[in-house]
């Protein structure tokens, strides 16, 4: 337990010290810092409690809404953080934490994060970021290059142009998707004769001017939930989100074309098709090349949400999976996913450096006309220098380094798929396209489940669903490993969604041994379930 | 100059080391880190070059859009960062850097930033943030308490309720304002008989259902430029931003009521009045208490943008300036401004814990119905644990500590105003309400400028404007100190805006001596200007 929180005197002298005097080497915070630097994984395994406390218990430690009056000494506070916060955090660095896209980070980001705070630059305007502004522009240019591979003259012309931008750095994929589709909306319903554009006149006047009922955004049902938020916040309304069924986990081009045409024939206008490069739930990649042609045919924007899968472009082995991404008008990519940058490094990259002028804005004290202030075309205002983390990663890993990491993850996912397939009590539900896969426990006695008649299948799947939920929770609570779960429709079981384990293989430190241990643990958990036992006992004839 | 970048081999072994082996104590990055910890201000003054290089020169260092193929050793890269990036950064910690809201941060944020990256929690869902979720909820509760001061039973009921939230943590004030007005829009055009709400049906159907032409947002002309972005992105259109003239730098309640009524009489609906607590340019606070009544009278939302001024609530001496903020439906506050938290700590606080349900959304793999995942009501998705920085600051400063810092800044601003007023060649343009003020160089011979006839006044003000721009730039480039500039309309010069120096006194280390030095430097710069000399030579009769 933490000791009583030691209170300091309320004096300016004390506060000045907080601003000017670093911690002593033997202070608690300095010791935490040293331990982090010396051996992060040891720090985490020593301080993060493996066996999880219930959320309700943890909430008790964070239940006081009163702001303390007296200042507290830093060291005393640091002890509280260790006891109450760090102890109950999730060890996302653990090689067996493979349930979400958050994983281990390389060491150099620890000191760099200190440098970031120490410099405290604000990227909204050049007056508070000087060299960080060109650095961010270069970094966006490198990412543009990764996707669109234009020639040197192109980058020489646009990289530092005050009237252009190759992209927008932002806090994450959601803001990136909103930014891209905001630009798309303002371009497609842009200024015209006697019309000052949707940004000025609003959607209602835009629909009237362009004589349309609604505008729509299309994606497969595997589209990220941020698309729903986007269409809501942009004022278009969730009913105009054309979410197409995707039993094969991808948006079928011919369905997209048919639905898009029908939608437009009804007096509506397609705003954008969103192709996904690495769906959040199964890691699938839409047929981007064909979807680009469909978007072209329909006369709408083509956006690719490559928040997760974009980094695959580093791999000469696998980049073909994203063929057609270079036709996209805009691309979302998150460096804090497969590029191992700390959270807060989202980007929209624009094919055309003039695109973002559709949302350009000015103010009197910053973002003045002609300035190179980055804030003039971003949705966010003040932002920190997170671009440095990506800039450094691009140099320290290099294209070659990223390729090795990406290739390793995808190959490990394939190996995991083999392990699952080779065990009679597991069912691989979706194959890994990139490094994500889904599977579940399905007893050998039910190996013919997918061919059973519908009602019986639904009934048995319901039982398996509850098993999957239960095993996933128990494994999480045991604290040794973590896989996530989701509900998806898959071809083999028709339109009724089933619950599956979801695994994201991104941590470079995860080994085949870790994966085997996770399967073993699941088998040992499920063995105790009476439902599972009843399956095992039943002769096959009785089930079918 | 940086040495040639040392390239590492492209091998998984090398990459694993980047993930598992920290820097040696004698590596460049470790030395940078130690210097930052030992004496941040010494690090900055040693590495940040005072005399500024031109932006075009700096851009040359960041002009390569090619991604390097081979990995680079961390230490080699760190040297490049020092030479090219740190050297050309802005020293926002300097006590004489008083031009923007970005200033010095307390020391404890350096190690905490490492802890943040080391833990790498993702706040969107509890599975990747466990204790950070309750911590963020508590922190939002403390801020709610600061504004709305409800009783203990209220916080006990709502702080950790899965169906409520007291606010939304986000990357900054812009996202906070968008979130607040998104919620307002979805509440005011919410679900109704035969209508599924604007979030589902879109603005066009909402206007039709509610039989209105447009919805509008009102603020004074001093409203932050993020309001323009907000009304654009929400689909309402910038033409429905009712920006009222504000010669006294505030939104006059009777004007607000009159304009609001006229707007509604024309078949429109007022969405929100935005009161500002600390305008970005002059630091003024709108008469919140009366504006709350106007909003009530008009039947619209009342939002307060207290991104800058919200921290004034810590001060028993000055909190009355924000009287009426407790009537606001939502409040924006940025902890990375006057609360000395690193960038990325914006918040919207909601008076009613059910407000944010107007934008609640779900997904299958996270944000499930009934979960306490924070992402269910935020605009952003993945977010880091920045709330920890605010949580720690609230404990380490305490209300008492923040009060001292706030009081000191406001008192220093008043002292600076006195210094300006007492010098015949300066004109205080706007008095400090909080810790921001504006002024300019105006020669003693023109002390009667505000009473001169209009044409002559405009002409002379134009000359002074160009002087202000020139002096501001020269002072910035000299690199010893920094004040910003803006253009504002002020009562004494009618509706024609004038250019002024803008000063933000937030750095607790800034002293009266620093301020005197800044005025002296400006006088010595301007003395060399021929325009200024000509003013000095002219007898007063000739000017008027």
Automatic annotation (TrEMBL), chains A, B:
Per the record's keyword annotation, is ATP-binding included, yes or no?
no
Q: Which residues carry this modification: N6-(pyridoxal phosphate)lysine?
A: 337
Record bears the keyword Lyase: yes
**Gene Ontology terms, cellular component aspect?**
cytoplasm
Please provide the record's keywords in A-Z order. Decarboxylase, Lyase, Pyridoxal phosphate
What Pfam families does the record point to?
Pyridoxal_deC
Which domain of life does the UniProt lineage start with? Answer: Bacteria
User: Matching InterPro entries, A to Z?
Assistant: Asp_decarboxylase_pyridox, PyrdxlP-dep_de-COase, PyrdxlP-dep_Trfase, PyrdxlP-dep_Trfase_major, PyrdxlP-dep_Trfase_small
> Which GO terms label this protein's molecular function in UniProt?
carboxy-lyase activity; pyridoxal phosphate binding
Which coenzyme or cofactor does it need?
pyridoxal 5'-phosphate
Q: Which GO terms describe its biological process?
A: carboxylic acid metabolic process
- Report the sequence similarity comment from the record: Belongs to the group II decarboxylase family.
What is the name listed in the Swiss-Prot or TrEMBL entry for this protein?
Glutamate decarboxylase
């Amino acid at each position: 337990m933490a000791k009583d929180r030691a209170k300091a005197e309320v004096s300016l002298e004390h506060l000045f010290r907080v601003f000017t005097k670093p911690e002593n080497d033997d202070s608690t915070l300095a010791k935490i810092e040293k331990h982090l630097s010396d051996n992060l994984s040891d720090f985490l395994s020593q301080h993060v409690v493996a066996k999880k406390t219930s959320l309700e218990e943890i909430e008790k430690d964070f239940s006081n809404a009163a702001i303390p009056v007296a200042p507290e000494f830093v060291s005393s506070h640091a002890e509280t953080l260790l006891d109450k916060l760090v102890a109950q955090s999730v060890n996302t660095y653990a090689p067996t934490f493979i349930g979400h896209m958050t994983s281990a980070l390389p060491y150099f980001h620890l000191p760099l994060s200190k440098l970031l705070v120490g410099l405290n630059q604000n990227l909204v305007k050049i007056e508070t970021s000087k060299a960080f502004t060109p650095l961010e522009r270069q970094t966006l240019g490198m990412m543009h290059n990764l996707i669109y591979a234009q020639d040197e003259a192109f980058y020489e012309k646009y990289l530092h142009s005050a009237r252009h931008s190759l992209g927008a750095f932002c806090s994450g994929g959601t803001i990136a998707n909103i930014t891209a589709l905001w630009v798309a909306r303002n371009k497609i319903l842009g200024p015209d004769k006697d019309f000052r554009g949707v940004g000025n006149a609003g959607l209602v006047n835009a629909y009237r001017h362009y004589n349309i009922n609604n505008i729509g955004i299309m994606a497969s049902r595997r589209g990220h939930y941020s698309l729903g938020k986007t269409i809501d916040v942009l004022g278009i309304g969730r009913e105009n989100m054309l979410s197409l069924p995707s039993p094969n986990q991808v948006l079928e081009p011919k369905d997209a074309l048919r639905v898009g045409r029908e939608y437009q024939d009804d007096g509506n206008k397609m705003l954008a098709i969103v192709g996904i490069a690495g769906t959040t739930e199964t890691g699938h990649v839409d047929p981007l090349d064909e979807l680009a042609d469909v978007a072209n045919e329909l006369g709408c924007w083509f956006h690719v949400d490559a928040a997760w899968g974009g980094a695959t472009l580093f791999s000469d082995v696998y980049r073909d999976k994203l063929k057609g991404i270079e036709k996209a008008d805009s691309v979302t990519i998150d460096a804090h996913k497969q590029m191992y940058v700390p959270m807060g490094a989202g980007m929209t990259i624009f094919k055309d450096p003039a695109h973002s002028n559709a949302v350009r804005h000015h103010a009197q004290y910053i973002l003045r006309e002609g300035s190179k202030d980055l804030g003039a075309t971003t949705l966010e205002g003040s932002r920190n220098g997170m671009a440095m983390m990506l800039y450094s990663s691009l140099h320290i890993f290099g294209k070659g380094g990223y390729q090795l990491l990406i290739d390793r993850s995808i190959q490990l996912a394939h190996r995991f798929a083999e392990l699952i397939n080779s065990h009679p009590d597991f069912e691989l539900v979706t194959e890994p396209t990139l490094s994500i896969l889904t599977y579940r426990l399905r007893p050998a006695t039910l190996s013919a489940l997918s061919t059973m008649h519908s009602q019986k299948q639904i009934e048995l799947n319901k039982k398996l669903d509850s098993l999957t939920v239960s095993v996933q929770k128990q494994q999480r609570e045991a604290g040794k490993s973590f896989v996530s779960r989701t509900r998806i429709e898959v071809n083999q079981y028709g339109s009724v969604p089933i619950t599956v384990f979801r695994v994201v293989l991104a941590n470079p430190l995860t080994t085949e041994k870790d994966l085997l241990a996770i399967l073993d643990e699941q088998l040992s958990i499920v063995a105790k379930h009476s439902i599972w036992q009843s399956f095992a006992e039943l002769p096959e004839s009785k089930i079918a």
